[in-house]
Design goal:
This protein is mainly alpha-helical. The chain has a domain of 232 residues: Orthogonal Bundle (Farnesyl Diphosphate Synthase). It is 70% helix and 1% strand. It contains 16 helices and two strands. It has a two-stranded antiparallel ribbon. A hairpin with a 2-residue loop joins β1 and β2. α1 crosses α3 and α8 packs across α9. The radius of gyration is 20 Å and the shape is globular.
């Protein structure tokens, strides 16, 4: 596909693509985690959904869709390289993602992750921090051993710096008021989401392309596309936290509101010129009923604004992908990811 060409419509079975990329990555991930201290390795296996506490095989299939590993593999394939070329990037990014979840759950006080006790609840806070640190170190080691490892590590380091900025902003947002001069605006939230969620998705796609020998312009374009996709993913996740079915999402409904976390739909609703926005602000300031706040946020247009914002991010991701030459089959699979993720909120 030439640069600037629209991505040709191709029938893509995205769940099958995600399964294929996971299967390609899994043996290398098992080898990497198998080199850890046995106890730390058990905690890593538990976090990845491979085993139960004590090391017995997990009763259910591992959670998560595997979007980050898929981006790394597809990034390599889009550059014209075999998918296995992107496996070190897939492993490294999945290790970093898992490390970030271990520490996020501790910072946020989240007791469950994918319908099971979080690692810090299952093993203790100190052990969970240790396991997270080990996964981060293992990610660096994995990428350093890959071809062009120095350039790959520089890109991973930049993404990590952004991830930490986003996490810092997210934590600080919780202490800011819902209204008034110090309130969090939707624009600031989008920047936070790009850093906290988008940076690692962009890094995954970019690293796959880099290891696949793509030119700098292609690597950068895939990074931009992943960042936009990650921002859309975070906004959709916020919507599911307010209006999703816990049986499907695996997360308690209205938990973000109970914890007074700032999320895009609520911030967009508060900015809306709608009578429900004022009632929503009053309810939030009084620590009122989370279900009532979710209903008012929807009435003020927060749900519609969030969905439109996610769609804009998807359009920007597709524009970035269309701007550079990519192998057609992988480009079509990358193009199918946004619709699959957005579909969770429709």
């Amino acid at each position: 596909m030439t640069a600037g060409s629209p991505i040709a419509p191709v029938a893509v079975d995205l769940p099958e693509v995600l399964d294929r990329c996971r299967a390609l990555m899994r043996p290398a991930m098992e080898v990497a985690v198998g080199g850890l201290h046995p106890w730390v390795g058990e905690m890593a296996g538990y976090a990845l959904g491979w085993c139960e506490v004590g090391g017995a095989p997990a009763a259910a299939a591992p959670g998560g869709k595997g979007v980050r590993p898929a981006l790394a593999v597809l990034g390599a394939e889009a550059a014209g390289a075999p998918g296995r070329t992107g496996v070190p990037a897939a492993v490294a990014v999945e290790l970093v993602h898992t490390f970030s979840l271990l520490h996020d759950d501790i910072m946020d006080g989240d007791a469950t992750r994918r319908r099971r006790p979080a690692v810090w609840k299952a093993y203790g806070t100190g052990p969970a921090v240790l396991a997270g640190d080990a996964l981060f170190a293992l990610a660096v080691e994995t990428l350093a051993a890959a071809p062009d490892g120095a350039a790959a590590l520089r890109r991973l380091s930049a993404a990590l710096a952004d991830l930490l900025r986003g996490q810092a902003d997210d934590l600080r947002f919780a202490t800011r008021p819902w209204t008034g001069r110090g309130r969090v605006r939707p624009e600031a939230y989008r920047t936070m989401a790009e850093h906290k969620t988008g940076a690692l998705l962009g890094c995954a796609a970019a690293l796959g392309a880099l290891l696949g020998g793509a030119p700098r312009a292609t690597v950068d374009a895939l990074d931009r596309a992943g960042r936009h996709l990650g921002t859309a993913f975070q906004v959709v996740d916020d919507m599911l936290g307010l209006w999703g079915d816990p049986a499907v999402t695996g997360k308690p409904v209205h938990a973000d509101l109970r914890e007074r976390k700032k999320t895009y739909p609520v911030l967009a609703a508060l900015d809306a010129p709608h009578p429900a926005a004022r009632r929503l602000a009053e309810l939030l300031e009084s620590d009122g009923d989370p279900a009532g706040a979710a209903a008012l946020a929807e009435a003020a247009g927060g749900r519609a604004a969030a969905l439109e914002g996610a769609r804009r991010q998807v359009a920007a991701a597709r524009t970035a992908l269309a701007a550079v030459p990519l192998r057609a089959a992988a480009a079509a699979e990358l193009d199918a990811l946004p619709a699959f993720l957005l579909g969770r909120a429709l």
